[in-house]
Amino acid sequence: MKRDKPKYRQIIDAAVVVFAENGYHQAQVSKIAKQAGVADGTIYLYFKSKEEILIQMFQEKMSVFVTNLKEILKEDNSAAEKLYKMVENHFNVLYSDKLLATVTQLELRQSNKEIRLRINEVLKEYLSLLDEILIEGRKNGEFDEGMDVRLARQMVFGTIDETITTWVMNDQKYNLMDLAPKVYKLLLNGMRA
Amino acid sequence: MKRDKPKYRQIIDAAVVVFAENGYHQAQVSKIAKQAGVADGTIYLYFKSKEEILIQMFQEKMSVFVTNLKEILKEDNSAAEKLYKMVENHFNVLYSDKLLATVTQLELRQSNKEIRLRINEVLKEYLSLLDEILIEGRKNGEFDEGMDVRLARQMVFGTIDETITTWVMNDQKYNLMDLAPKVYKLLLNGMRA
Amino acid sequence: MKRDKPKYRQIIDAAVVVFAENGYHQAQVSKIAKQAGVADGTIYLYFKSKEEILIQMFQEKMSVFVTNLKEILKEDNSAAEKLYKMVENHFNVLYSDKLLATVTQLELRQSNKEIRLRINEVLKEYLSLLDEILIEGRKNGEFDEGMDVRLARQMVFGTIDETITTWVMNDQKYNLMDLAPKVYKLLLNGMRA
Amino acid sequence: MKRDKPKYRQIIDAAVVVFAENGYHQAQVSKIAKQAGVADGTIYLYFKSKEEILIQMFQEKMSVFVTNLKEILKEDNSAAEKLYKMVENHFNVLYSDKLLATVTQLELRQSNKEIRLRINEVLKEYLSLLDEILIEGRKNGEFDEGMDVRLARQMVFGTIDETITTWVMNDQKYNLMDLAPKVYKLLLNGMRA
DNA sequence: TATGAATGAGTCTTCATTCAT
DNA sequence: CATGAATGAAGACTCATTCAT
């Protein structure tokens, strides 16, 4: 399996650094290769194209969000508590890896429509897990029974996303983690019965 | 004044079409010129660069949002009602001009960081007006007095933005306007005292 | 006659300024028009093309050299004295009009081969007058009777030209006129019997 | 070292041909690439820009003049003999490579001021060696002790340059080498004590 | 005569990808 | 597996010239 080989990881990690430091359009394959310590051509032994690096990088990194969220879902907590942990986790992953935050919130979005559609595919699993929380909360009366799950999910994700993007655009100069409880409270109110 | 000349408008309108149909990076200046019915060089009599077309187009179109929102603020209504009208207006403007919706939600974001910073400048006026609603509602007790206005604004804008982007990504195949009251209700709950 | 109309002169004078200040390749027709205080299109009522401005400008300015040199030839002096006055005049004209010096020594030479051939045509009259001095001097024994007039002319003109070009390239920071007697002496020696 | 690779030389040689045949402004990079038998992009693996080709080409070719002149200076000859050999060498190098003569005397000068300043830098070494001859001759009494070396150098170089340029402009239709002794004699007279 | 808005041909350079070694 | 030299397609922008007014 290619993904387990050390060069595969080297390249993915190099891509995060190069995208964060140079922006999407200045992230040439040769820069990524240099950062990874391999030859340009070697990239193509592991990835079909430059776009593929981007997508696989996103998949790799998203898997952390998904893995963590699955753990959160397994715990014996209320839907509200799960929601809180989900928000906190989302903030925490990007707060802990500021390069990654820059890449996901800014640079990645400069890719073309087709890539972003594929990125959205990757996001879907994460959003489904979020839906599970929302459905559970609606069923057990924590959230409003008339709540539209799809819209609620868009509110949760849209709010989180906007909050983090603003933080990144402001050069990450305030403490993102301080916002987690406040964002949670706002969102919870929105959905409460 | 260049902005009042017919060719200026022709080019702006052509740019919306070409950006929507081809995406930012496939929107060659020659395509825009052809769509506008002018020579390539004519573009540069009205715009300093291709990027400038994008920014000016955004400014022109954003001014509709701002103008409408200013009207809404003048009316003698509760903050909640103003919020409702704001959401409805935002949805309506993009629902009424589906090409524009594609451009603002998808294509515009492919531009580089610098352009997006300038676009954000334009957005600021709109977001300030939104803040006015939120502050008014907080003051008169409609919204929670402990509410963080900046976060609330990010929730409102983030939710609206995510909702519309999802609609565009789904090829605008459902009726966006149906979502306005529901989105409003979710947001209002979030902020209610 | 077009040459007598005021706009013709305005444009020629503007061209000297614009060529000197911006260099040949940055001397756009629109800049010349602006400097001359006329519309772009007006240029083409007086000149067939941009190249034509250059050539006519050179002709106009060269005529000063020629007129002065004709006066010098008429005077009742030895060939050596005429040569001295010729050198002095050449230096003086360009020393007195530093913009013109920049144009003739640097900017004009950036034009293409065809233009420079036409400029050389204009130079020919001047060089023929120089030949007259050389032939006279050779005939009356002032200069070496075995002297090749064409080569001697190339020495005289080449030396003058190189001297002035060096002065211009050094930002005209020393006094060109001080060099006239020394250059004359060098050249005279070269040709003396 | 890039300069030792065969493609580097191929491109330099192709550039001489293309510049000579088409002139500076009609010497498109794609023409040079075609003439060199490489892809357009390959040019940029060896040269930073089109201008850089010009400058490096000039440096490569000028080095022949300088190398030869250094040899001449080493020989145990009078300053006058060295001057003669210098003139002869200068004529001979360009007489032997008529394409190069066209490029140095005509096409190179069409480049902009900045490039010509860099070209002048390259010339300086050559002119310093010429100065050595002149100073030596002045010291040992061969040349006039009151001679201004800078002016004498400008006479020597200006005369040579003008002679060769005239020869090139006349389509190199007479034998340049025949002029060497005559030019030498003229110059020597100019400087003789 | 004079204007100046409009035209559209023309080119350097970048960089993702390939392939001979 | 790994290399990195070579490829070549693609596009924003300038500016001399025209022509309707």
Automatic annotation (TrEMBL), chains A, B, C, D:
The keyword DNA-binding applies. Keywords: DNA-binding. Residues 5-65 form the HTH tetR-type domain. InterPro entries: Homeodomain-like_sf, HTH-type_Tx_Regulator, HTH_TetR, Tet_transcr_reg_TetR-rel_C_sf, Tscrpt_reg_YsiA_C. It holds the Pfam family TetR_C_4. PANTHER family: ACREF/ENVCD OPERON REPRESSOR-RELATED, ACREF_ENVCD OPERON REPRESSOR-RELATED. This is TetR/AcrR family transcriptional regulator. It comes from Chungangia koreensis.
